Amino acid sequence: MSSPLFRYDSETCTYVPVELSHSRYVVRVVLAGLVIGMASLFALDQVASTPEELALENENEVLRTQLADVDSRLDLLVGDLSELKEHDAELYRTLFAVDVMSSDVLQVGTGGTEAYPEFGGFRSETRRLLVSTASRLDQVERQLSLQNESYRELSTLASEYDKRLAEMPAILPVNGPITSGFGMRTHPVLKVKRLHGGLDFNAPRGTPVHATGDGVIVRVGTSAGYGRFVKIRHETAGLTTVYGHLSRVPREIRPGISIGRGDVIGFSGDTGLANAPHLHYEVQDLEGRSLNPIYFFAPSMTPDEYERLVKLAESTTLMFD
Question: Would the CA dihedral through 197, 198, 199, 204 be positive or negative?
Fold first, then answer.
């Protein structure tokens, strides 16, 4: 039973019962129900979100995670990239005389939205932000990859450059004056005019003959013209050197062994077409064309001076790099 309603009767100064009609009773029940429903919805709203709010919260969490990851990765990549670009543009490529990597290549980007299908279910603004961030990160990673490739290329060039310098025939092969130069001349034995493809050095029999650059022995033998000779291939430098009219070649000097600049590879003599003890020395390209050896010598660098320089460099402790 519901509790009765009362109204105040001013004439009798008392409360008298009020009889409700059916319609007023129904209205009262409906209003009570609405109040209760609104209160329930308000209470539920404090503990549960709508589907849209849940979706927004999920997107926000993805954004936070994505941006945090981007920040940490970009911090590392930007530092590495800046260091590599500095060495690349300002030192290595200038030193080795190769082209600087094109800025167009460095700025290559990635595709649009289609390249990131994992962001397709988000709202347009959220999707745009995620794609932009991911695209920037991919671009920086590509720049770093290109710089690393450039650095590997330059490292290879540096290694080859050092090896090429070591192989250049840069010292005099004997301690003795040049007695005959490169060019056309009358042969002292054959008495005919022909190209003298090297230099002759005055060197008494038994004078040590030195390799003028690092290389590999490719021939040790005799011929009618050169007499006893040694031929060294300087592969990276693209050259060969020939030492002719030798009186003797040490037993350990044989094809296939590696030789360092300044190593003794034989002793001067007068074997072959020679009228006095001396050394005939040639520099050729890998196709066998004769080159003037005088252009390869370091000025006044004799074998003894080279050895002194090597010993001085090995004993020096003060460094500047």
Answer: negative
Structure tokens at 286: 């890998």
Residue 92's DSSP bridge partners are none
Q: What is the pLDDT of residues 212-228, one digit of tens each?
A: 999 999 999 999 889 99
89 falls within a domain: yes
Pick the closest to residue 206 from 150, 278, 260, 125 (CA basis).
278
CATH number for the domain spanning 251: value is 2.70.70.10
Pick from 211, 208, 210, 249: nearest CA to 227: 249
Q: How many Å apart are CA 131 and CA 113, to the nearest integer?
A: 6
58 occurs within a structural domain: no
Amino acid found at 66: Q
DSSP label of 88: I
117-121, 146-150, 242-246, range with greatest mean pLDDT: 242-246
Separation of alpha carbons 184 and 195, rounded Å:
4
**Is residue 122 domain-shared with residue 189, that is, in the same domain?**
no
